[in-house]
Write a structure and sequence with these properties.
Alpha-Beta Plaits; Chitinase A, domain 3; Trigger factor, domain 2; 3 domains; 5-stranded antiparallel sheet; disordered C terminus
Length: about 475
Amino acid sequence: MQVTETKTEGLLHEFTITVPAVEIETFVNNRLNELKKTANLPGFRPGKVPVPLLRKQYGPSIMGEVLERTVGETSQKAMEERSLRPVIQPKIEVTKFEDGSDLEYTMALEVMPEIKPMDFSKIKLERMVVKADEEEINKALERLASAHKTSEPVSGSRKSKSGDITVIDFVGRVDGEEFPGGKAEDYSLELGTGSFIPGFEDQLIGAKAGDHVEVKVSFPKEYGAEELAGKDAVFDVDIKELRETTPGVIDDELAKKVGLEDLETLKSNIRDEHENEFKNMARQRMKRLLLDELEENHEFEIPPTLVVNEFEGIWAQFEEHRKQAQEQGSDEDLSEGKTDDELKDDYRGIAERRVRLGLLLAEIGRLNNIDTSQEDLNRAMMAEAQRYQGQEQQVMEYFRNNPEAQQQLRAPLLEDKVVDFIFELAKVTEKTVTIDDLIKEPEEKAPAKKKAAAKKAPAKKKAPAKKKVAAKEDK
């Protein structure tokens, strides 16, 4: 095998690789001898088919196998001999391949830049600690009690008020014609919840059981059913019963309704849930500051192709968001008054940041033998599957049969392991703060232009689970 480097430009390397015909012939003969053991042709016993006949019968398909195998093995060997680590799949183009002649092909690849991680013990970080607020715990208990409220029929002829449940029959019409989904009987509607078309519930307040009410409303312009969006409608509503709601009592019985022993256990669970949520928020905040610190202290060349691919992904997501907003009639200015060229300039900066940090974290993981296990991946797949109730089995099958989707789950797992590794080496101090302090935007060292772009860059997507896609935290 002869390898000639034809171009070196930054991280880009190009080679011309020639494999002598004698090596190709050896590969072909080895494959023919393998086939001979099992080949079954009319007139010959298994294993006795002459090699020349096999070559005539299977030659074209064997040459395709030999080409693929030879290119794969020789290109890998060429990279290993030169200690080249490609960041993406090398681009290979066969320029000469004929029976009896040398194989010649070109290989172009962008390689991993040289990265020297900083001394992580010099990094100073602050971990914010928020204790669960008793007032918030009480509010959570009140919401839980409200979810377990009961209702009793209203005695007498009291008029309905917000919070009451009306049991109604209704028929809706647009332009005098009934429409699909606009009719129901014995429907329980809690007034004041806003669960119906805007204005519908308001017109039932003040009515009594036995009343007939003509409700006039307009469907919102962004209503899901296009044939009704923006249309005026009239509903004939008969109020059959009026019920008064009573919130559940915050006591041991409420706790038992949600599967816990007593009220104190319920409070403890709510407190733990709040504090875990605060811990996750504090970790994400500290991670963001760590990534800023890492970016500021590492300067190395980044592969242009990776940046282009990352930018194209960000821009495609932005255009998708913009299209959805337009279809929904939203007047939100996603571009914040900037031209597309200005936005693209911002997003290219974000793409460069993501690529730089991705390469850096991957290299830190490699140098410190940090990797994800199958057990880690299984937990991540289970967690993702649980997000789609009723489709858990289909989601698990999707991941098991899709290596690319598994890799999309592995990437953030590995990133978090590397981040935790750096946290252990950095100087981390704790500070007790309020929830308002925790959610406040941290002061960043990054340039103003980069900060502004980072806030509105579309989030990376995680592995698709059949129908939905989850967003990944921005770097």
